[in-house]
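Thread: Phosphotransferase, structure

OP (GT): Posting the sequence first so everyone is looking at the same thing. Length is 249 residues per the record. Can we get the structure tokens written out before standup tomorrow? I want them in the notebook alongside the other entries.
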Amino acid sequence: MDEVEVVVAHRQRATLRVGDAFLKVDGDPAHADVELRAMAMAPIPTPQILWHEPPVLAIAAVPGAALGVLGEPSPASRQAWAAAGAALRRLHEAPLPPWPGRRLEDVAEQLDRECAWLLDTGVLPAEVVRRNREIAEAALRPRESVFIHGDLQLTHVFVDGDEVSGVIDWSEAAPGDAMFDLAILTLGHEERLDDLLAGYGTGDVDREVIRAWWSLRSLTASRWLIEHGFDPDAPGCEFDVLRARMQDP
């Protein structure tokens, strides 16, 4: 009997590992629907689907290891980061998914709401919240949409040696801003951005917008993390990302 490992569990969903299979349990069937459709469309390595019986989606483990985890130095090579950038470029150049992405108006409303919560609770100094709110403004501009992963955390990109072996967790995939994916993958690992761009290319990259998404993502994710038992104030995590922006020119 394989041991059951709880990978992540909170009120919205849980992921369990049983041997070489991951069982994703989600109360919202739309998440699995998007994930299945996105993986079928993505021109980059994705996990094998084993079976799907709502509310459970079973996928096979991908070989290799994640690029890293938030709060710790990435053990992956520069070549592996460049390979991740090249894979991301292929995704962004693929045909758009046929479902809608998030409206900028909704993102702006969420940003205002979460900044108000941060100021009201005092979990961060007011000047840190206000300065990052200013920086985040650059992300709230009209842009051409591309096929984005939508939640491209370090732990969602796996590499085997210097090659991408699989990208997991596609439930947020949609048309969106390419700079968002670049920002989420380098959140808390800003020193790896040049390695990532070595494979992605730099001709259409806007570093100001990437910095804006670092701020916006950290501001809007903090309350959810706190309420679901995570610590955005752990070393190298979201609060450190926000504090680092205070040193930007």
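GT: Both are above now. Quick notes for whoever picks this up: The first strand starts at residue 4 and ends at 9. The domain at 62-247 is CATH 3.90.1200.10 (Aminoglycoside 3'-phosphotransferase; Chain: A, domain 2).
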